[in-house]
Model the fold of this input.
Amino acid sequence: MKRQSRHSETHHSETKAVRGAADLEKKNGPMATPIYQTSTFEVTDNDEQLRATDTDHFYTRYGNPTNTVAEKTIAELEGTEGALTFASGMGAITTTIMALLKSGDHVVAQRDIYGGASKFLSQWLPKMGIETKFVDTTQYEQHARAIRPNTKLLYLESPTNPTLRVVDFKKLAALARQHKLLSMIDSTFGTPVNQHPAEFGIDLVMHSGTKYLAGHSDLICGAVSGRRELMERIWGTRTTLGNCMDPHASWMLVRGLKTLALRVPRQNDNALRVAGFLSQHAKVRSVHYPFLKSHPEYSVAREQMSGGGGMVSFEVEGTGEDARRVSEAMRLFTLAPSLGSVESLVSIPVLTSHAMVPAAERAKMGVTEQLIRLSVGIENADDLIADLERALEAVSARERVPVG
Done:
């Protein structure tokens, strides 16, 4: 399996995103990545067939040259030895965990994570004989106390979905090393532009590539990056489960990655301005954004992130119905699930990303009916703020209408 990054440390993120997987030697070749839209590859003889089995020129469930370009680019951006792509973000999570754990193992996971991951850990892994202990996200003594002799994995997410909590990479990487655990983080909200968990010692970095990596609301994919030996174990499980990425989707991902380092800083700037506006609005109860000084992990975020990200969540004053009305009154923020695209989106987490999480668990996460999640795009920030102001004022005006 050939999945090793070349570690071009002399290049910055912008260069890695565009040229990270390219052969920089001068040659007569295509500028655009070719789409190897094929399920299988021809060989000259059976000996070559055997040699090809572990390469990207055997069968696309095992690998594909277009997929390899996407994987090498992600590895370059994350600063890891290798990366693998999957048919979805959940596919990346489930395949990785099943590759590395067995019946009788134990997981310690922070409570604030994506709803789909929470469901897999709490409802599906027990069917395989694997138990998960959920702990408060930034209470690191709880993480330590939850570790058992059979604990094998520390599962993290930062910034978290949807309350934007930030975990301390240094502390948790050190905890994992101390107890000889693997550490895995969902870094979707952070992006490899804003943070590099592997530099702090996190073993595996996962992305729902559907979001920021692709960036245009037009494909579904997932990615995991880390050390070569871990990638090889995960690759073996991926070939069995068949959770590979389609070559055409990989080509679209490669195209999206080329502008990642341009899109994310604009989204950082827009989101910070949006968060600042919301924090001053009378109809807003609370705002969650890592680079607001009022954020509980502001200092940690500033230390390990170069930007606060494009995600903002806030609670409206009033009821869940008020939150729905605000979200439906927006025009530039499109009411839709998902995130990370060039266009701005809005959703209600209790109805989308965390609908599958029991209400009692959502309450522990701080995911209320009044919480609105914004994915801030690359539009003009003034226009986005004006859209939010109109939506909030529309609800306020409705409340002021006399009854009878």
